[in-house]
């Protein structure tokens, strides 16, 4: 089996990392610095996005129709690289924030704030603090979780689990929310809240993964908002994307190297398509591959934390510096690998036993009408979205690649597809990409420009945004599946 | 057992016997299939694959096909099918995309026969050809259907569903070469097994995935499909275009559908989510299932009729790890429990009401109420025996026709429009509203307003005078029409005894309606006496027979006049408020709660002789002197509001609530208030009184109500030139870059209210057009049209 691509890049990572570590240390002392790039994203050069934007009238139309703030925010700008998807994204987001639903409008925004706070995503928090006040929310609530009604506070537990370890959600959690006397949640309300939580956890992944810059225009900031914004330090506002040093952006790798990498990837994809039938993997082999992928994903991040900075150090940093934590409790609770060594074996989620199409959809749509269709369309859209291009090559069938990305995310959340050969993941996704995926889906707040830059160097930015979209939706679906399965179990 | 003998003949000798029973499996089942001898059933799931023998009293495990030390994914079955020609042949579809065939005739422990690993994704369905021994069809998530010849190692042909996942494949029972497949995008395709290049026919059957389909066992062209959109549809495929012949709406997504043998219109369904029951539907009766099996505790995943010619045995497997045999005679029949009733308003206010005959006849035991025979006839009643449906209970249909003018609600409209609810001091509001009510001849209401004024505003000379006036006035007239819309329509219906000739069983027919309505004595003759100042003169004969329930407040007064005199309802609250007796409110309460309100009122009223008005005034003066706080009355006022609301005059209740505001609000619970508000707003909107309803919404303090005005506030405008929606601003079109609405008078853009003539469609600023049309009757645009402005 050819895994040529992985070893050199791993070595390269290592080289970079000593370098990077120095920068990070240095950077910690000078917390305040300005983002490197202007424009909507810190990762993507401004002209890439803007170029695409000016041509696109459709986006403007969509923004007018569905945006809650009524302007083109940075997320939308970056997403508008994929207009087809943007439409279903905005439509579903608009529906859950503004249209008929069991929850009052300010509550919806507050839940969004709670969800974003789990990942310290100040961009989303600011945005929704604004909207929260605009829709008539009580300003006092913004002082933190202690100031909100018990009912909303109760949501904290499920928010925490959904964001970091969705597989721990059981029907007992649901029961605790549904049957608590005066503070209880009705099932439609709960489903609405769960959809919002999953959406904003996933969106936080996208924001960090694409390095979305904070909104700049000052005109919308009213008095209160200024204050609340000022509570965050500048590094928060920049989503920590600026820890990159200009000296690092100079590429250490020859172009020839990465070109051959791309060729090799395409070669492997082609081979996978053609030679599938020849390779008769036994059942044990398949199971092992899934387990291996799970295990490896564990290794992926521990490696990364090792060469960025020590784990505890990082977390302390987070808690102290950000005011975001007032919207959450237990801020130390984070992603923990599904396949932890030495712990009791958690049952794998068999995808075929609880699928979105068959089960999730029916439940969601039953309790919160129409959102099912919108989400269904969005998942379908992102799964099938392709331009049949890869970097400079055209007419490429990227199905296997997209499926590998999607299933890899689910794999990290312990969801297994019987009909998928997890060996493919290993062949198609290089190590640096795996690091990126793992970070974006599990610890989005730790994403750096280096990670973003280090994989698929030949690919266009729009393609990397496409990857981010896939990661985001895969994550949202995984969270929803776990939550909805728990609700189903509660119902039966 | 007669039933059994009938079954025996149907099956030609081999009788099926058994009872409703279930057995526990070790793991959740995904699918089941029956052997052709109807004595064995195979159950397959993620971690189970067993054959059970069906015996009379129980299921007996016969064979475990899951052999080998290590569980293989090939054994994780999504579907299983037993060949209907060969008792030894089975096929399973595995979740990892493998199709496996099993030969029970193999001597070894492992019965696995062949392995087809051609599908890339989960195989959702496998299906044997009904008559060919070696042909197997599979449909997979990867969008392909494959046809296998079991004598060969690989597939014979592959059918492509254009990258949409295949959810079900079924060979047609009658057409040798045809099979149907259903897809995740809602399509159904018909294929000829000989032509793998393209499908014969394709149509969209459902919105969302079509999970299952089943060919009718006898009717060649009928195909039933079930989808995630909670529908079962029956298609006639014989015609040129597939035609939907029946549609059954279920309460959850449909996972399996199976035609019931020997019953042309019956089919069984089960759901994949939320709903655990199995339903048998008569497709001609799509709203109520013909039978229902409720044994399972989790979703049912597989259903199968035990024998292709026996309609009474149904087998099912479920996620709750049980295998069940259901007997049709043990099924619960929702139809039995349901009380089919229909109620519908016609275009002109006619009311049709249908109910099961048995239901009507039980009610007919009650005696029709006396005392209302002399009432004018409001409705004519026709009785129509509705056509019985599949031998079910026949039902009685009554149609109530509205006599022209009788149901007029003009008082309601007038009142709503003329009432003042806010913006002035309380006293003025009350006076104004009292005046409005009086002018409309609703004296009780007028009286109430006056009373409220007296209670809640500061005392003065004027109040005494108006009180005097209204008392005199109020007592002079009969019971005003206070009842609601519904009651009003129904109550007189009771009195009407005329029926059309073809009605049958009229004795029971007139009793359907509410008994409480009889207590409302509507008497139109009262109008004549209006204006008379002497209440004692007025005689109302309707109260016969109700005296025994009267509450006598003042026996020595009441007795002499009792049978003849009636004071209107107004006098009632008045009396209690003014006579300074603490127990007053309780008495009122008693009466308000009693169903015979009007009766007791009649009696309470009867104590008012000529001099009553005088005494009343004097009492009220005394009242002011003692300065009772308004709070003292609030309980009373609340009762009064409830009384009005119960009578159906929710208008009064809401109006008073708004006018009094904080004074009474806290005494009535939120929900009741909300309920009143919503009913009043609903009524107003039915009468197109948008302005009033809006005002009410605005003035309401209930959160749920006031947010009504905040929902769907967007108004979409289309450009007058290109007919496209104008998205950014209401007056400039982004597409044709023209101003859409110009004022015909001043030729400027209209940015606010735009008024236009419906004849020539010219228009402009509201003020400009008004001014213009004062001077000229022609259109300001010069088109020559004679515009009308109203």
UniProtKB/TrEMBL annotation, chain A:
Asked if Amino-acid biosynthesis is a keyword of the record, the answer is: no
Name where it's found.
Cytoplasm
Tell me which Pfam families the record gives: PA26 (PF04636)
Output the lineage of the source organism.
Answer: Eukaryota, Metazoa, Chordata, Craniata, Vertebrata
Task: Tell me one GO molecular function of this protein.
Answer: oxidoreductase activity, acting on peroxide as acceptor
The text of the family note is: Belongs to the sestrin family.
Which ranges form a coiled coil? Answer: 255-289
Q: What protein name does the entry list?
A: Sestrin-3 isoform X2
Q: Which reaction does it catalyse?
A: a hydroperoxide + L-cysteinyl-[protein] = S-hydroxy-L-cysteinyl-[protein] + an alcohol
**Highest taxon of the lineage:** Eukaryota
| Cellular component, GO annotation | cytoplasm; nucleus
Recorded hits in InterPro entries, A to Z, give:
AhpD-like, Sestrin
Keywords assigned by UniProt? Answer: Coiled coil, Cytoplasm, Oxidoreductase
GO BP terms in the entry: cellular response to L-leucine; cellular response to leucine starvation; negative regulation of TORC1 signaling; positive regulation of macroautophagy; regulation of response to reactive oxygen species
UniProtKB/TrEMBL annotation, chain B:
Biased composition of type Basic and acidic residues is found at 498-509
Q: Can you say where in the cell this protein is located? A: Lysosome membrane
Q: Would the keyword Nucleotide-binding be found if you checked this record's keyword annotation?
A: no
UniProt entry keywords in alphabetical sequence: Autophagy, Lysosome, Membrane, Metal-binding, Repeat, Transferase, Ubl conjugation pathway, WD repeat, Zinc, Zinc-finger
Q: Which coarse location class describes where this protein primarily resides?
A: membrane
Which residue intervals are annotated with compositional bias (Polar residues) in the record? 514-523
Its recorded reaction(s) are:
S-ubiquitinyl-[E2 ubiquitin-conjugating enzyme]-L-cysteine + [acceptor protein]-L-lysine = [E2 ubiquitin-conjugating enzyme]-L-cysteine + N(6)-ubiquitinyl-[acceptor protein]-L-lysine
The entry lists its GO molecular-function terms as: ubiquitin protein ligase activity; zinc ion binding
What PROSITE patterns does the annotation carry? WD_REPEATS_1, WD_REPEATS_2, WD_REPEATS_REGION
Known Pfam families for this protein? WD40 (PF00400)
- Matching PANTHER family: GATOR COMPLEX PROTEIN WDR24
Q: What is this protein called?
A: GATOR2 complex protein WDR24
List the lineage, top down.
Answer: Eukaryota, Metazoa, Chordata, Craniata, Vertebrata
Instruction: Give the gene name.
Output: LOC111156192
């Amino acid at each position: 089996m050819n895994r040529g691509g992985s070893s050199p890049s791993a070595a390269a990572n290592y080289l970079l990392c000593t370098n990077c570590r120095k920068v990070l240390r240095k950077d910690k002392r000078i917390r305040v610095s300005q983002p490197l790039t202007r424009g909507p994203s810190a990762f993507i050069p401004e002209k890439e996005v803007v170029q695409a934007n000016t041509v696109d009238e459709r986006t403007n139309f969509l923004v007018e129709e569905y945006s809650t703030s009524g302007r083109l925010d940075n997320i939308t700008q970056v997403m508008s690289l994929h207009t087809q998807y943007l439409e279903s994204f905005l439509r579903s987001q608009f529906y859950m924030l503004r249209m008929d639903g069991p929850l009052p409008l300010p509550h919806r925004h507050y839940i969004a704030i709670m969800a974003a706070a789990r990942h310290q995503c100040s961009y989303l928090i600011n945005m929704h603090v604004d909207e929260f006040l605009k829709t008539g929310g009580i300003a006092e609530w913004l002082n933190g979780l202690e100031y909100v009604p018990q009912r909303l506070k109760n949501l904290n537990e499920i928010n925490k689990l959904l964001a970091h370890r969705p597989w721990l959600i059981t029907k007992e959690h649901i029961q605790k929310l549904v049957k608590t006397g005066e503070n209880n949640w009705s099932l439609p309300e709960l489903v609405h809240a769960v959809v919002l939580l999953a959406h904003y956890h996933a969106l936080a992944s996208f924001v960090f993964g694409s390095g979305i810059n904070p909104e700049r225009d000052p005109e919308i900031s009213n008095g209160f908002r200024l204050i609340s914004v000022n509570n965050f330090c500048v590094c928060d506002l920049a989503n920590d994307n600026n820890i990159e040093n200009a000296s690092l952006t100079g590429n250490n790798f020859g172009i020839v190297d990465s070109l051959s990498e791309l060729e090799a990837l395409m070669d492997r994809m082609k081979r996978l398509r053609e030679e599938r039938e020849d390779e008769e993997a036994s059942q044990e082999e398949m199971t092992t591959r899934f387990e291996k992928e799970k295990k490896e994903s564990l290794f992926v991040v521990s490696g990364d934390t090792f060469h960025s900075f020590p784990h505890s150090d990082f977390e302390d940093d987070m808690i102290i510096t950000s005011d975001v934590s007032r919207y959450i409790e237990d801020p130390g609770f984070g992603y923990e690998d599904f396949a932890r060594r030495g712990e009791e074996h958690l049952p794998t989620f068999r995808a075929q036993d609880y699928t979105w199409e068959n089960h999730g959809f029916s439940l969601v749509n039953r309790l919160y009408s129409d959102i099912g269709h919108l989400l269904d369309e969005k998942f379908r859209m992102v799964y099938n979205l392709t331009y049949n291009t890869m970097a400079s090559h055209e007419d490429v069938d990227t199905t296997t690649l997209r499926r590998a990305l999607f299933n890899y995310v689910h794999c990290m959340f312990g969801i297994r597809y019987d009909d998928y050969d997890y060996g493919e993941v290993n062949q198609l996704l290089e190590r640096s990409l795996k690091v990126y995926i793992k970070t974006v889906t599990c610890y989005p707040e730790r994403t750096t420009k280096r990670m973003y830059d280090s994989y698929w160097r030949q690919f266009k930015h729009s393609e990397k945004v496409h990857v981010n979209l896939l990661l985001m939706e895969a994550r949202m679906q995984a969270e929803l599946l776990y939550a909805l399965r728990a609700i189903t179990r509660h119902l039966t | 057992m007669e039933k059994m003998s009938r079954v025996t003949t149907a099956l030609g000798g081999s009788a099926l016997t058994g009872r409703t029973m279930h057995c526990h499996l070790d793991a959740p089942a995904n699918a089941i299939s029956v052997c052709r001898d109807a004595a064995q059933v195979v159950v397959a799931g993620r971690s189970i694959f067993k054959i059970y023998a069906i015996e009379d009293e129980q299921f007996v495990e016969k064979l475990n096909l899951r052999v080998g030390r290590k569980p293989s994914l090939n054994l994780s079955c999504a579907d299983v099918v037993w060949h209907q020609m060969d008792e030894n042949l089975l096929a399973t579809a595995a979740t990892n995309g493998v199709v496996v065939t099993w030969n029970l005739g193999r001597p070894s422990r492992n019965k696995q026969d062949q392995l087809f690993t051609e599908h890339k994704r989960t195989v959702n369905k496998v299906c044997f050809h009904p008559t060919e021994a070696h042909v197997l069809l599979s449909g997979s998530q990867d969008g392909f259907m494959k046809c296998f010849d079991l004598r060969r190692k690989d597939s014979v042909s592959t059918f492509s569903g254009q990258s949409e996942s295949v959810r079900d494949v079924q060979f047609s029972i009658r057409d040798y070469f045809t099979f149907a497949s259903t897809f995740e995008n809602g399509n159904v395709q018909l294929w000829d097994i000989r032509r793998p290049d393209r499908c014969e026919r394709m149509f969209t059957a459902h919105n969302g995935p079509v999970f299952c389909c089943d060919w009718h066992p006898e009717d060649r062209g009928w195909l039933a499909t079930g989808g995630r959109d909670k529908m079962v549809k029956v298609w006639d495929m014989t015609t040129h275009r597939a035609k939907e012949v029946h549609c059954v709406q279920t309460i959850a997504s449909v996972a399996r559908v199976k035609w019931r043998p020997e019953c042309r219109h019956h089919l069984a369904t089960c759901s994949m989510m939320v709903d655990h029951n199995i339903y048998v539907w008569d497709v001609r009766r799509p709203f109520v299932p013909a039978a229902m099996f409720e044994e399972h505790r989790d979703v049912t995943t597989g259903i199968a009729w035990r024998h292709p010619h026996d309609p009474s045995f149904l087998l099912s497997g479920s996620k709750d790890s049980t295998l069940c045999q259901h007997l049709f005679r043990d099924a619960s029949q929702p139809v039995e429990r349901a009380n089919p009733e229909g109620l519908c308003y016609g275009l002109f206010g006619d009311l049709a009401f249908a109910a099961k005959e048995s239901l009507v006849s039980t009610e007919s035991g009650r005696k029709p109420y006396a005392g209302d025979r002399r009432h004018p006839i409001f409705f004519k009643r026709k009785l129509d025996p509705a056509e019985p449906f599949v031998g079910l209970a026949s039902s009685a249909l009554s149609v109530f026709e509205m006599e022209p003018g009788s149901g007029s609600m003009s008082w309601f409209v007038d009142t709503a429009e003329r009432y003042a609810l806010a913006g002035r001091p309380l006293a003025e509001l009350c006076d104004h509203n009292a005046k409005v009510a009086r002018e409309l001849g609703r004296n009780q209401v007028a009286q109430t307003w006056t009373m409220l004024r007296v209670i809640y505003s500061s005392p003065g000379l004027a109040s005494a005078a108006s009180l005097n006036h209204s008392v005199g006035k109020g007592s002079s007239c009969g019971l005003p029409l206070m009842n609601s819309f519904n009651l009003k329509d129904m109550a007189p219906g009771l009195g009407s005894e005329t029926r059309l000739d073809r009605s049958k069983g009229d004795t029971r027919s007139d009793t359907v309606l509410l008994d409480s309505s009889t207590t409302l004595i509507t008497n139109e003759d009262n109008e004549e006496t209006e204006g008379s100042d002497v209440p004692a003169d007025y005689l109302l004969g309707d109260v016969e027979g109700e005296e025994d329930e009267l509450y006598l407040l003042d026996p020595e007064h009441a007795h002499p006049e009792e049978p003849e005199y009636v004071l209107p309802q107004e006098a009632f609250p008045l009396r209690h408020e003014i006579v300074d007796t603490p127990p007053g409110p309780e008495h009122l309460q008693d009466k308000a709660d009693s169903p015979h309100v009007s009766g007791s009122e009649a009696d309470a009223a009867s104590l008012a002789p000529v001099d009553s008005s005088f005494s009343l005034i004097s009492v009220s003066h005394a009242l002011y002197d003692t300065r009772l706080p308004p709070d003292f009355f609030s309980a009373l006022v609340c009762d009064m509001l409830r009384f009005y609301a119960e009578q159906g005059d929710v208008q009064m209740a809401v109006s008073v609530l708004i006018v009094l505001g904080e004074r009474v609000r806290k005494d009535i619970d939120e929900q009741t208030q909300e309920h009143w508000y919503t009913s009043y707003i609903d009524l107003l909107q039915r009468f197109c009184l948008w302005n009033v309803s809006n005002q009410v919404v605005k003035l309401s303090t209930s959160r749920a109500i006031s947010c009504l005005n905040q929902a769907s506030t967007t108004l979409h405008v289309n450009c007058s030139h290109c007919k496209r929606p104008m998205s950014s601003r209401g007056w400039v079109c982004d597409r044709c870059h023209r101003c859409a609405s110009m004022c015909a008078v001043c030729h400027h853009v209209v940015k606010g209210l735009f008024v236009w003539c419906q004849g020539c469609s010219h228009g402009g600023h509201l003020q400009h057009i008004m001014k213009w049309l004062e001077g000229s009757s022609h259109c300001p645009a010069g088109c020559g049209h004679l515009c009308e402005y109203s």
